[in-house]
Amino acid sequence: MTETQSAGRKIVDAAVRRIGHIIVVLVLPGAAVAAWRWGWAMAAAVALGGALAYANYRWIVSIVDAMLAAGKAKPPKRAYAKLLLPLVLLAALVYVIFSRSLLPVTGILAGFFLLVIAVMLEALYEVVRGPRR
What we know:
Number of domains: 1
Largest sheet: none
Order of helices and strands: HHHHH
Distance between the termini: 18 Å
Low-confidence stretches: none
Helix content: over 70%
Number of helices: 5
Structural class: mainly alpha
Strand content: under 5%
């Protein structure tokens, strides 16, 4: 790995860590606002959605790392299983939510969108910070 690639990898690793931290940090105020405005069920839904967003993010990071580590070689079958597992779990959760109405769907979606907010905040951070040398 060249010096430029190593420096680029450090920047990406730092961004990956920050995005994960942002998701975790946003869950608490998001659930608190939901509890204050809509009650405990919505707060639980936002917290569950945030937990799913964090788990999904970690799965995505691990899949990308496994595929990058494989290089031109064929990725291990475990990477494919890790790719499909979140989709199966998400489909099962959506089925349970719609069929049983345990928690408000809007709260779970709001929590799940914390991943999008975290990525946007990270992009803003990178723009404000500017290029590194």
